[in-house]
């Protein structure tokens, strides 16, 4: 497996990976997520790749894209003025899970965030995604805050 920067040639495969992730969210939370044909347009994908404050990684195995990671460096994002890396997406193709792909992507994103002077790495994981939460905890992450909700459509 090789970790490298994403390129425009990865768009179709990346779009498929993002669709797989999105479908999981739609299934678990149809009250929040709606089906979508594409999560990123070609133009949006190109902008992310060109962004100097973005980390856009691909995991490639035998010439195929099996995982990806998007993170953004947010300068002066804390009261102290320190930069934070925010991991927008980390997804691995279903048939490539539990093979170290996510860990390799996470570790490379963490390394690159440090190189860009980020002092913290943050992300959001939905409460229903127990596997992701367990993975992130295994990578050394811990809860920072809780976002709570109450369904007001129910008695």
Can you walk through the features of this model?
The model has no long low-confidence stretch (mean pLDDT 94). The protein is α+β, with helices and mostly antiparallel strands. 33% of the residues lie in helices and 25% in strands. The chain contains four helices and five strands; from the N terminus they run βααβββαβα. The radius of gyration is 16 Å and the shape is globular. The chain has a single domain, classed as Gcn5-related N-acetyltransferase (GNAT) (Aminopeptidase), CATH 3.40.630.
The quaternary structure here is single chain
| CATH fold category name | Aminopeptidase
Shape: globular
CATH superfamily: Gcn5-related N-acetyltransferase (GNAT)
- CATH class membership: Alpha Beta
Q: Could you spell the SSE succession in H and E letters?
A: EHHEEEHEH
- Biggest pleated sheet: 5 strands, mixed
Looking at the overall shape, the CATH architecture is: 3-Layer(aba) Sandwich
Annotation field: number of helices: 4
Mean pLDDT, as a whole number? Answer: 94
Helix fraction by DSSP (H/I, runs of at least 4) = 25-40%
Compact description:
The chain is α+β, with helices and mostly antiparallel strands. It has a single domain, classed as Aminopeptidase, CATH 3.40.630. The chain is built from four helices and five strands; from the N terminus they run E-H-H-E-E-E-H-E-H.
Index terms:
single chain, 155 residues, Aminopeptidase, 4 helices, globular
SSE topology:
Blueprint: E1 2-5, H1 11-28, H2 42-50, E2 54-61, E3 64-74, E4 83-92, H3 101-115, E5 118-123, H4 130-138
Parallel strand pairs: 4-5
Antiparallel strand pairs: 1-2, 2-3, 3-4
């Amino acid at each position: 497996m090789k970790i490298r920067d994403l390129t425009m040639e990865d768009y179709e495969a990346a779009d498929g990976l993002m669709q797989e992730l999105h479908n999981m969210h739609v299934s678990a939370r149809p009250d929040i997520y709606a089906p979508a044909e594409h999560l990123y347009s070609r133009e949006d994908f190109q902008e992310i790749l060109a962004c100097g404050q973005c980390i856009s990684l691909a995991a490639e195995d035998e010439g195929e894209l099996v995982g990806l990671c998007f993170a953004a460096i947010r300068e002066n994002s804390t009261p102290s003025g320190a930069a934070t890396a925010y991991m927008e997406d980390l997804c691995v193709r279903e048939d490539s899970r539990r093979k170290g792909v996510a860990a390799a992507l996470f570790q490379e994103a963490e390394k690159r965030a440090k190189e860009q002077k980020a002092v913290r790495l943050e992300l959001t994981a939905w409460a229903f995604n127990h596997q992701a939460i367990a993975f992130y905890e295994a990578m050394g992450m811990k809860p920072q805050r809780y976002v709570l909700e109450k369904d007001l459509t129910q008695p």
